[in-house]
Amino acid sequence: MAMTISEKLLARAAGKKEVRAGEIVQARVDKAMMDDILGPRIEIAENMEMLGAGVWDPDRVTIISDHYTPPANAKQAEIVKFTREWAAAHGIVHYYEFAGPCHQVMVEKARVSPGELVVGTDSHTCTYGALGAFSTGIGSTEMLGVLVTGELWLKVPQSIKVHFEGGLPRGVMAKDVILRAIGTIGHNGATYRAMEFCGTTFDAMPMDERLCITNMAVEAGAKNGVIACDSITRTYLAEHRIPEGVSFQSDPDAQYCAEYSFHASELVPLCACPHEVDNVAEISGAGHVKIHQAYIGSCTGGRFNDLKAAADLLRGKKIAKGVRLLISPASREVWEACDKAGILSTLSEAGATILASSCGACLGIHSGAIGKGEVCVSSTNRNFIGRMGSKEGDVYLASPLSVAASAVTGILTDPRTML
After folding, report:
1. What is the mean pLDDT of residues 305-312?
2. Same domain, yes or no, for 231 and 364?
């Protein structure tokens, strides 16, 4: 029977030769990830103690304190302390703190390999599909079951093929690619479906950009996003000493519930306007939007490639008066690489403030929350009401290039005008 990549991945996890979309499978989990905000303190610690149960395989579990680091208050500090101590008490050696947003850390620390089933207590766990894994977010109750048994049941999702052909025009980044797809499919158009990204556009796309694509699959409601392994994947695996795992390709006659095709040459810089990720518009046609804050960072738009692109645009320029440009590298590793390359100095000289690697500003809990009536243009993944601070603030999502250009002018700006 012909199968898609996602079907093959779940067949492997279930120990079956083949599975069909809609089938319920009992799957063996290869890796489980928890963060501090939805980690052991939520349902897991108390219930495991009540059950008298231990972790099925501590080496397969990773815990990353990223949302509340650095802690902004005593409550956040106590949550990180609890998470740290729980990990130690349960033999979780893969515990990371102050290392950066969990999804970037998972990849950098070789905690994901092609072919694996990876689950995490964060909706953007779908990021790891860029490495050819089946990765998806689950709730704390589901994670409790995974921690105790190493298994969970999943319904095999139908797959949507998202095809982009051709090279990206100057000034266009992966963020514009995924916003184009989400704007077409809708914020719930891929609910509990796999989004499989393919085409020559992705063939030439570096891993930093691919991770942005799969990271945002959930913003269309997808269960997972995936890109087939190729030479770019293998090079990235070797550079980060990640095991090669098992690579899958969709069969030529695999069945898809929907297919979307785009010409990359027709793409222009885009933005997601408040307050939905699928409220997509061309930046040049979004109107005169005055901004107060520009943010480049997170597990979506804070990687080396992102910060380098922003620095190249900002070199020799200054940000507009009254605008704060905040930079949060996607991990400590990215921070150090950008520092050695002089990227952080270039950004700082333009007027940017360099922050720790953290999730804080992305969801408005520290390190860059916006106030009532303020507008932020951000390279992050969500712009819901109150996402980055005040419920009376507005968030526009855009590529790191577009964010940098907007910081210079003080208004939402198409970066092509500065390239």
Report:
1. 97
2. no
The pairing of strands 293-297 and 375-378 is: parallel
291 shares a domain with 234:
no
For the cut 90, the answer to whether the pLDDT of residue 364 exceeds it is: no
Q: Are residues 46 and 153 in the same domain?
A: yes
Residue 120 structural domain: 5-262
Residue 287, pLDDT score:
87
Q: What is the pLDDT of residues 238-252, one digit of tens each?
A: 999 999 999 999 999
CB atoms within 10 A of CB 144: 21
Cα separation, 271 vs 284, whole angstroms: 9
* Residue 125 DSSP label: G
Closest-CA residue to 217 (of 307, 155, 136): 136
Quote the CA–CA distance of 152 and 21 in Å, as a whole number.
Answer: 17
65 contacts 97 by C-beta, under 8 angstroms? yes
Indicate if 368 and 412 belong to the same structural domain.
Answer: yes
CB of 299 within 8 A of CB of 201?
no
DSSP of 134-153, one letter per residue?
Answer: EEEE--HHHHHHHHHHSEEE
For strand 224-227 and strand 193-198, is the pairing parallel, antiparallel, or unpaired?
A: parallel
Task: Summarize the confidence of residues 113-119 as an average pLDDT.
Answer: 98
Looking at the whole model, is its pTM more than 0.90?
Answer: yes
- How far is it, in rounded angstroms, from Cα 57 to Cα 289? 51
- For residues 151 and 403, what is the distance between their CA atoms, to the nearest angstrom? 41
* Residues 232, 105 share a domain: yes
User: What single-letter amino acid sits at 145?
Assistant: G
Q: If you write DSSP's letter for every residue of 275-339 in order, what string do you get?
A: T-TT-EEEGGGS---B-SEEEEEHHHH-SHHHHHHHHHHHTT--PPTT-EEEEE-SSHHHHHHHH
267 Cβ contact list (under 8 Å, min separation 6): 168, 169, 172, 176, 177, 180
**Residues 189 and 324 placed together within one structural domain of the fold:** no
In a domain? residue 87 = yes
Consecutive H or E run containing 202: helix 200-203
